[in-house]
Amino acid sequence: MLYETLSIEEDTNRYRKFIKLPLFRNASRTLRQQETDAGGLTPAEVWTEVENLLSEMRTIMPEDREVMVAQMVGNVKRRVRSIRRDGEEVQRTEDEINRTVTCIFYCLALVFEATSKDANSNPHNDLLDAMVEEMIRMNNPVLEPLHAGIKADGTKFESREGHELIEENDPMVVEDEWSENLNRLIDYYADRVWRMVKLERKDAFNSFWEKVKANSQLSATLRKKCNVKGDEHKELGFDYNAKCIFNIYGMLYRMDFFVGSIKGETPLAKQVTGHYDKDTGDEVFARYEYFKHDQAGTLPQFSGMPKDVENIIVELIKTILKH
After folding, report:
1. In what order do the strands lie in the sheet with 88-91?
2. What's the confidence (pLDDT) of residue 25?
């Protein structure tokens, strides 16, 4: 695997973008001294890797993030094993690889650390511990000067600019134009089918879509996985595959949400899953599986929904259809 470095123009553009971030500004000088000047990545390239890891982390269930750190470290190591800059390919030593990976994950840890002034109450402490463990295991000498340099520059900037360290937004919460557009798309479809929702299901219908809109993991997963443009959504200014959202309505249709839908009575549930337990919501999955098999030929786009998106949606549906 070969790491393609940024062109001078792209590197400069990203640097100008990142320099607005206090954490990057605190880290950039030390990254240049310890990583770039040693033949490694530029500060903008390091921070690009940090943002890529944050995007990937958002698609992972919170309880799984800690145990995924070692895998992510290994993946980055493989990516930076060789570098091509200005047309020249360079094979790197194990120490050089570990230095680069340490710089990336130290900066990633800074982002999570900055979400809370009180270290004891930081919601990401287990994740931070996992990252620190990996950096200690790599045992690269860059760690000490990296920590000292970034800390010194952070203190200098805070003192010079006359402000205290403020808490950053939680990096696992996606709050940007993408999320706004996704919520607009959800509202668009919800409004279109509202009149078809059964009266006794309207509260559950509203509750479900509020949960969908609030699920940052789903938003991040759709953003990462579903980058296919669809002409049917041009009027919404939404340039990503919205079929995943639209197809959820098909799932709800089979689950007896709309007037005229097939109810999927208990015998059907038994036929599909072999059992039915109202308390645990197994009928939900019976109806869902029936829908998938029944509609596979007529709605082939449904089968294109990424499995991780499908899993998130099923869990959200389960929370409102147990009773």
Report:
1. 2-4, 82-85, 88-91
2. 92
